[in-house]
Amino acid sequence: MKRFTQSDVQQALSWYFVTMAAENSDSPPNPSCKILTFRPTLEEFRDFNKYLVHMEMKGAHRAGLAKVIPPKGWKPKRHYDDIDDLVIPAPIQQMVTGQSGLFTQYNIQKKPMTVQEFRRLANSDKYCTPRYLDYDDLERKYWKNLTFVAPIYGADINGSLYDSDVDEWNISRLNTILDVIGEDCGISIEGVNTPYLYFGMWKTTFAWHTEDMDLYSINYLHFGEPKSWYAIPPEHGRRLERLAQGFFPSSSQGCDAFLRHKMTLIFP
Predict the structure, then answer these.
(1) Where does residue 6 fall: left (phi above 0), alpha (psi -120 to 50 degrees), or beta otherwise?
(2) Is 242 exposed, middle or buried (0-12, 13-18, 19+ CB in 10 A)?
(3) Mean pLDDT across the stretch 81-93?
């Protein structure tokens, strides 16, 4: 069984008192549940857990999503010249049906392909991002064309692209309590205490959902086009669930937690 040091205990207690103070305060941080952006220095970036406490002190968790811009000069990988032959074992084609802002997504597994083959496909005339004037124009095009030309998603690939000698915010070893489950208990929960890789293209989508076991999730965009997110503050999550139950009554009757199936798309 893992033994925790005095430093571990002090850090845990500091997190507890910070959280309790925020909950008991008359004016908790980030009352508007705004999505916050953080720009840590390299020194701050070295301690993942400490910086997470800092983010929570600012009320970042209230939005359900936060953006962290790594310090200048930090790189998780020296180069990406060696990934072309990496195999995507089970790419999925995302078929979407629906109308009037309410859609259901079905995933159809395709044959394996390499990253080089996927890149070629993503940049082809059939699958590439259309021309657009600005972000709002691109967003309109996304929702208008959601049911046409089903994209291919290289999802749920075991592994990480981080270089093994990268210590800061290395998704393979974040030094959290989830590491104890893997190291001391020998329990591996894919995508929870092991990293997953994703290769996306225009319109590849993760449907509305909460994270596995309601844990935090961390994503790093290595390269490519920007990634867009929609988020609901956790304190309003039940309202979204009730709304979805009204829009998709048959799915709701089959499973109360049907949003966790990652099949439901609702235009915000």
Answers:
(1) alpha
(2) exposed
(3) 97
Q: Which of 207, 213, 210, 208 is nearest to 193 (CA)?
A: 213
At 1 the three-state DSSP class reads coil
* 29 vs 14, higher pLDDT: 29
Write the DSSP symbol of residue 20.
H
Structure-block tokens of residue 102:
């309410």
- Residues in CB range of 63: below 8 A, 6 or more apart: 30, 33, 34, 35, 36, 231, 233
Decide: 66 and 38 in contact? Cβ < 8 Å. Answer: yes
Please give the full DSSP string across 50-72, using - where no structure is assigned: HHHHHHHHTTGGGGT-EEE-PPT
- The predicted model scores a pTM of 0.86
Over the Cα atoms of the chain, what is R_g? 20
pLDDT digits (tens, 9 = 90+) for 72-82: 999 999 999 99
Residue 25: per-residue pLDDT: 55
